[in-house]
Amino acid sequence: MKKKLLFVIDSLDVAGAEKSLVTLLNLLDYHQYEVDLQLFAYGNPLEQLVPEQVHLLKPLSYTSFAGKHWTSALMQSMTTTDYTMLISRVRYSYQIRSKNCGNIQKARIYWESAARVIEDNPKQYDVAISYAQGVPTFYVAEKITAKRKLAWVNVSYRLDQRERQFQQYYYDRYDKIITVSDAAKEVFLETFPFYQKKLAIQYDINNPVFITKMAEIGEGYKDDFDGVRLLTIGRLAHQKGYDLALEACKKLKEASVHFKWYALGKGPLQVEIEKKIKKMGLTDHFILLGVKANPYPFIKQADIYVQTSRFEGFGLAIAEARMLNIPVVTSIFDAVYNQMVNEKNGLVVERNADDVSAAIKQILDNQPLKSRIIQYLIHEKKGNVEEIENFYQLIEST
């Protein structure tokens, strides 16, 4: 009999955890597993890459309600004379607008506001997996019945006392907590040292055959620019360090480098970043491309991949650039040396605009260095599909 698995994640927008999950789902043995997938937001690009064997569950009642226009939500509440979801929605909206909330705080406020109106999943699973911290973790802990529950932690993040106490209640309900790198594990233990025996590591699975194939299909850059293309992939959020990228971009412009710096992603800082681009005179140099379901042609056609993150659990986009033999310039973050070998597959520098821009110029100006990096990339080990065996051990262990 097939084992019943449930995966839960916020959405399948184009980001690291989401791409990691899609890769994993495309490697699973569906002769052995029956797989359900629950999302909290639907209609995002990576949904089209989910294997047909995966049963995508329908939206939860509250997430459907929360997606309605306020007028429609009010009319539904009046028609049914049930105002509980409306009250939950108003409470959440008020609190995130009246407080300066980051993603961690928003997840807590969301669950405090909506948990009581979110229905349980009536099905019983062998293994239920929260594939992201925050709301998916709270949901699987409280609303799912399963023989074993696993919680993925795919970013390096630190919590204050209030958030630690709130999240501990939910992590206590898990059999295993899975981090995606050694560095992410160490950071998690700074907040939750008492979970040492619950922790295991499962590296994000990268499939070079899939990525190489995807890089050959679809379109990349549509302009006819003939200079240097730099590329950054990441949510338009504080974590990704776009303020640093813009400062580095300005320095390259001042140094008369013939380049364009492209960014794939969307996020809460988009308007702010667009204003900074205009204010800094970088309209022709820093180009926001939005979200692309298939980012790999853009990576393949870039000259250098640049990451300016403040923190990452692993750095999946860096791994993807490496698999396509694109030199990397990255700032230091907790997990950077899990995959980067400085001056071998790219350059790892301090997190400041001077060092980032200097490293980019170093690769552009030093052709022997660039050639050595590319040759190293060509010959270094590609991907880690063998990690699927570690995943099987995690879900099969008792």
Structure description:
- With 398 residues, the chain is an alpha/beta fold.
- It folds into two domains: 3-60 and 119-207 and 386-396, Glycogen Phosphorylase B (Rossmann fold); 208-379, Rossmann fold (3-Layer(aba) Sandwich), CATH 3.40.50.
- It has helices at 16-25, 61-66, 70-80, 84-98, 103-114, 135-143, 161-171, 182-191, 208-216, 242-254, 270-279, 296-300, 316-323, 353-365, 367-379, 387-396; strands at residues 3-9, 33-39, 55-56, 124-130, 145-153, 176-179, 199-201, 228-233, 259-264, 286-290, 304-307, 328-331, 346-349.
- Strands 3-2-1-4-5-6-7 form a seven-stranded parallel sheet. A six-stranded parallel sheet has the order 10-9-8-11-12-13, with helices on both faces.
- β8 (228-233), α10 and β9 form a beta-alpha-beta unit.
- The model has no long low-confidence stretch (mean pLDDT 90).
Name a few traits of the molecule.
398 residues, alpha/beta, Rossmann fold, 2 domains, seven-stranded parallel β-sheet, six-stranded parallel β-sheet, 16 helices, 13 strands, 17% strand
Rounded radius of gyration (Å): 22 Å
CATH topology assignment of the largest domain: Rossmann fold
Q: Tell me the strand percentage band.
A: 15-25%
Order of helices and strands: EHEEHHHHEHEHEHEHEHEHEHEHEEHHH
Mean pLDDT: 90
* Tally of individual domains: 2
Major β-sheet strand ordering: 3-2-1-4-5-6-7
The main pleated sheet reads as:
7 strands, parallel
Structure classification: alpha/beta
Question: How many DSSP E strands?
Answer: 13
Architecture of the largest domain, according to CATH?
3-Layer(aba) Sandwich
- Indicate the CATH class of the largest domain: Alpha Beta
CATH homologous superfamily identity of the largest domain: Glycogen Phosphorylase B
Q: In terms of quaternary structure, what is this? A: single chain
How many individual helices?
A: 16
Poorly predicted runs of 5 or more residues: none
Helical amount among residues, as a percent range? 40-55%
Cα end-to-end separation: 17 Å
Q: Specify the overall morphology.
A: globular
